[in-house]
Amino acid sequence: MDLQQMRYVIAVAETRNFTRAAERCFVVQSALSHRIAGLERELGVKLFARTSRRVELTPAGEAFLPAARQSLEAAERAAAEAAAAVGVVRGRLAVGMIPTVAALDIPAALESFRERHPEVRVALRAGASNEMTVRVAAGDLDIAVLGLPEDDEPRGVRSRILARDRHVAVVPESHPLAGKARVSMRRLAEEVYVDFPVDSPGRIQSDRAFAAARLARDVAFEASELDLMVRIVRQGLAIALLPSAVAAGTAGIVTVPITDGPRRVEYLAWSEFNPTPATTAFLQILESAGRPLRA
Questions:
Q1: Pick the CATH number of 162-266 from 3.40.190.290, 3.30.1060.10, 3.40.50.2000, 3.30.70.20
Q2: What pTM does this model have?
Q3: Hey, which CATH number is domain 1-88, 3.90.1010.20, 2.60.200.30, 2.60.320.10, 1.10.10.10?
C-alpha cells in the first residue's frame, strides 16, 4: 500500500466516478483502476461497488476512507513541515466559503498567496457557515469565510469580523416593487420566495426577521447556489432576500432596501490549534492586505 493508492481511492470516493477521479489525479483511468484493483487484492476486500454507470463505496471502503484521509494528510503535513524548516511553504491549503461571500476578494488574496508560495495546492470548498465552522474546528478546513445572523458568532474557532451588511429585497426588473425607494417586511410577506435550505445560516437570517415581525411567508423554492437563486428571481418565479453587497449590480434584477430588514455579519474563521505553514502564510497575506487578524 502506498500514498498514491490512497489518493486514488479518495478521489474516486469524492467524485463517485473513475474517469473524473483520474482527471483530478492527472493520470489515465486505466492506471488509476489498476492501482485501486491492486490495493483491493492486497487488502482482500472490495472498496467500491461499481457498474458502468454507478460507483459507490462498499462497507469496507467506508471503513477504509477516514484512515486513508488521515494518513495522506499526515504525510503531506510532514513534508510541509520539513520544507517550512528551510523557509519553503508547501502542502495544502483548504479554504471554505459561503456562496454569498462579499467582504473578502478570495481570487485576489489567492493571487498574492500564489505569487509567494507557488508550491502550495489550494482546495476551495463552498458550503453553509455552520458546516464549515465545524470543519475548521475539526481541521478539515484551514480557513473559512462565514456569513451569520447579526446576533450569532462562530463557536470553537478563532474569528474576526470582515464586514456587516443589511439584506435587500431582490426582484425582477418587471416586478411592482422594482421602482420603490423602500419596502416594509409586511409588504414582503405577500411575496413568494426562493431562499437557502431551511436551518442553514443564510436562511435563518431571513426567517428570524419575519418571525420578529410576526409575519409568515411562502418559500416555494430552496437552492444552495446563489446563481440559481438569481436565475429564479430573474425568471419571475420568486423574489429573494440577500445581502446588499452580494446582489448589487447583477443584471436583470433590482434591489430594494428593506425597512427593519435582516442583517448579516461576515467572518473569517480559522483554528489556532497547530495551524499548517500554509495556513499561517495565508493569514499573513490577509494581514498585509489590511485585514487585522491578530489584534
A1: 3.40.190.290
A2: 0.68
A3: 1.10.10.10
Alpha-carbon span 134 to 74, nearest angstrom:
20
Q: Which is it for the CA torsion 156, 162, 164, 169, positive or negative?
A: negative
List the grid coordinates of 272.
Answer: 489556532
Per-residue pLDDT, 251: 83
pLDDT tens, residue by residue, 25-71: 888 999 999 999 999 999 999 999 988 788 999 999 999 999 998 88
Q: What is the CA radius of gyration of the chain?
A: 23
d(CA 241, CA 166): 10
β-bridge mates for residue 222, sequence order: 195
Which grid cell sits at 227? Answer: 446563481
CB 5 within 8 A of CB 13: no
